[in-house]
Specification:
It contains 14 helices and ten strands. The protein has 373 residues and is an alpha/beta fold. The protein has two domains: 270 residues, Rossmann fold, CATH 3.40.50; 80 residues, no CATH class. The strands form two sheets. Strands 1-2-3-4-5-6-7-8 form an eight-stranded mixed beta sheet, with helices on both faces. Helix 5 packs antiparallel against helix 11, helix 11 packs across helix 13 and helix 11 packs across helix 14. Pfam families: Mbeg1-like.
């Protein structure tokens, strides 16, 4: 079976004028935000994708490698194929922002793609491997809005002011959440010009948003895709309809959009979630319900304060110094009695929630021992 990179091999020679923008195109364009165009693509302006990628290669080389702990190889290969395709001939990208603020637990990256069909695609990056990004992700479970969500809403609104045509917005992982938040927060006039809101395995929100007027206006435009082994898109409250797609990987590896199977111009659909994903979803929701917002925030702060006290700024740093980081984190977590109590109680509740969810999903086998005659 093929993936989004293979899709460019067989669909790349077909221009958008003959075969319109597809859901697979949506994933491909939003994955461009995985490339670091800082100092290359202007924050207020645009340049040809060919020129931008050429400068990127001068700075980082053309090797297709991991882009941090969370991004396996594939993005550079995809970008090369996209550049060579007729489908995206003349692609222009611009208004690039890449902001990481550890003090405010903020990680935000976005760019605008000027597509050959005359529309624009606002793309938001998902979670990178900075600790600031991960703290912000966890803060989504206890805060109504995190800085990146507010950044995304402002970015989309600004794009709408500067361009009076039709737009798409999308992102993978946290970027998918940002896309939905930005779309539902946009002025009504701008919402009417949105063609699609792509959410590729992004987490939901702390509370249900289905009753909010802004969400209701864009709900039918949301295209959400989650792999059958999803462990991210099933988190928190997701009120949009979604398609479950087939991945060639299981567990956390299925979050990688390049593992999603493609046939024609669509992702291959699955009838339902894998058992592990269903158990995980129920356990995490049950656990979250048992913790009040203050407890959640105390736990988040305790964990990330300990990790950041090691001097690490990224998950890559923690990998390189995992022993020292783990010891420092444990020492800091256990040094305060109140934090220790919150942490221990939370972990116990999580374990109980997972066991309860597993029991509700797994058939009881061997409860009674069969007697051999």
């Amino acid at each position: 079976m093929a993936n989004a990179i293979d899709y460019l091999d067989w669909r790349g020679d077909v221009p958008l004028s003959l075969d319109g923008f597809s859901e697979v195109d949506g994933l491909i364009i939003c994955k461009l935000t995985s490339l670091d165009f800082s100092g290359i693509v202007p924050e207020d302006g645009a340049m040809g994708f060919a020129d931008a990628l050429g400068e990127y290669f001068k700075r980082f080389g053309e090797e297709d490698r991991r882009l941090g702990v969370l991004l396996p190889p594939g993005t550079v290969t995809m970008a090369k194929k996209l550049l060579a395709s007729r489908r995206f001939a003349g692609l222009v990208i611009g208004d690039y922002i890449n902001r990481v603020d550890g003090a405010n637990a903020e990680q935000f990256c976005a760019l605008t793609a000027f597509l050959p069909d005359g529309t624009r695609y606002i793309a938001f990056r998902g979670t990178d491997d900075t600790l600031a990004a991960w703290r912000e992700d966890f803060n989504m479970s206890s805060l109504d809005a995190v800085p990146a969500q507010l950044d995304a809403a402002a970015y989309l609104t600004r794009a709408g002011w500067r361009f009076d045509g039709e737009l798409r917005v999308g992102g993978h992982s946290k970027g998918g959440n940002l896309s939905v938040f930005a779309a539902m927060s946009a002025p009504e006039e701008l919402q009417e010009r949105l063609l699609d809101v792509y959410n590729f395995d992004g987490p939901g929100f702390r509370r249900s948003v289905k009753s909010e007027p802004g969400f209701r206006r864009v709900r039918d435009k949301i295209r959400m895709f989650v792999p059958q082994h999803s462990m991210v898109g099933v988190l928190l409250e997701n009120d949009a309809d979604y398609a479950i797609v087939e991945s060639c990987e299981t567990g956390a590896a299925a979050h990688n959009g390049f593992t999603w199977q493609v046939k024609g111009r669509r992702f291959v659909r699955c009838p339902g979630f894998a058992l592990r994903s269903r158990v995980y979803r129920e356990a995490m929701r049950s656990w979250a319900e048992r913790l009040d917002l203050e407890q959640r925030q105390e736990l988040i702060n305790a964990v990330f304060d300990a990790l950041e006290s090691t001097g690490a700024q990224t998950l890559s740093d923690l990998n390189e110094r995992r022993v020292r980081s783990a010891l420092a984190a444990a020492r800091d977590l256990l040094s305060d009695e109140d934090e220790r109590e919150v942490f221990a109680e939370s972990m116990e509740q999580l374990a109980r929630a997972y066991i309860s969810a597993a029991r509700s999903r797994l058939p009881i086998i061997g409860r009674f021992r069969r007697k051999d005659n």
